[in-house]
Design a protein that fits this description.
alpha/beta, binds N-(aminocarbonyl)-beta-alanine, binds zinc ion, hydrolase, seven-stranded mixed sheet
Amino acid sequence: MFDLVIENGIINYGQTYGCFYIQLLKTLQVTASEVLPLGIEIGIKDGKISCLGTSLPRDADTQIIDAKGGFITPGGVDSHVHFAQNNSPTGDNFTTGSRSAIAGGTTTVLAFASQLKTETSVIPCLDNYLLRAKDQTYCDYGIHLILTNPTPEIMSTEMPLLINRGITSVKLYMTYEPMKLGDSQLLDVLMSARALGFTTMIHAENSDIISLITDRLEAAGHTDPFFHAISRPQIAENEATYRIISLAELTDTPILIVHMSSEVAMKHVRKAQTRMLPIHAETCPQYLFLLSERLKGNPQDTFAGAKCVCSPPLRHDPKDLEAMWRGIANGTFTTFSSDHAPSTYDHAGGKKLGLKDGIMRYRDIPNGVPGVETRLPLLFSYAGREKDSRLSLQRFVQLTSSDPAKLYGLEGTKGNIAPGYDADLVIWYGEEDLREGVTIEQKNLHHGVDYTPYEGMHVKNWPRFTLLRGKTVWDRDGGGIVGDVTDGQFLKRGMGKIVVGKTGGEVNGMLPGERDYWY
Ligand code: URP
Ligand code: ZN
Ligand code: ZN
Ligand code: ZN
């Protein structure tokens, strides 16, 4: 790597080598493109990856981490977490949520600031959410804006200002009364997002289908947590997914459909991608591992099903899980995020909001499950080339780190092990060091809520070290959380890049060029 190495001199390393190498020995580094052979070392300087090479020079000040034959992957980028949101007062804040993130190998989170429908400016809302994070976060973070009232003023005047502030993505809801947008609003925002280059995330479920079923279920006395899943059938996700893909195609706007849970809906995405439309999709651990059976609770606590209330709901058939795994392996999904949106179970204002005077009402249960800490270990257990593997190591890195970084404007900084990138790294255990794997238990997790839906599940590996910009922030065998709550920096993001498809393609049923008349 160096043209010249001078030996036996008296080196004033304070100046000449004011660098800080972390030398990683005997390791395999997994990036989105390849697995490098054992023996390649990573040199880190000033929090950045400076070089990859063999026999990197080191001196007395060089800190050495021996990765002991373990895999090294880029720090996780969890592009969908809910921290400190107004509508989940018993959920995680930036401190507890990001603490949980680094313990599970995630070094970057993208959290939401949520506009209230009554707000006619999004600036105070954003400033407020940024204050909740500043100096209270263990990992780096960026902010997406949930737009619930996209006024013409906001779209024309405020959105361009957000770009300068590094907020380059919005989430739109097609369901939930306090958040949902109608088709004309969706179209307006898509047109603006296209013009400005924003990345647009969509929660796709048909609101009226859900309301109709919920009202009728309630009238019939069916209000247990299990009926949450009955009230949000796959056809609600299917219809909204097809509709938003159509609106995105019409307006030639790249989108990402978040937290997809069912095969019928996923097929629309796959078909659109085959036509080279820039339609991205996300799925989450809960849709790979959990079934709606969980909503029935257990004999000791019949309300415990509330813990697994999330939207879209858990599906009932193992075939649905299989379908999501196929989407993971075959490239339909661009991101694998946690949608970490928990509420404390056993606490006023938490999940037990849905339990009043002995009556269960799923309508009142806050939606969302915890998962920011378990996301990487759960997926990593199935990555590789073993008999039970379901995705390649490269796909693992793409889904959990490099593609979300690209899609949300962090390419060049996050999501890769390459010179110039932030030294955000996960060092996993080598084969000899963790033979029995790890059993997931609430008591070992670092979030602020009181349960995990993955209790008792077994994973093969766990992050041994997590490094944030060259600093060890998680050392599983040496103190656990060793980072500081002020380590996390706000990420001013650039414009996101399309990962699949392209813009400027032909529109179903329109002649080439017809769109130019009205664009
Ligand atoms: O149930 C969920 N996912 N709640 C969180 C909010 C959302 O829609 O992502
Ligand atoms: Zn959502
Ligand atoms: Zn969410
Ligand atoms: Zn309390």
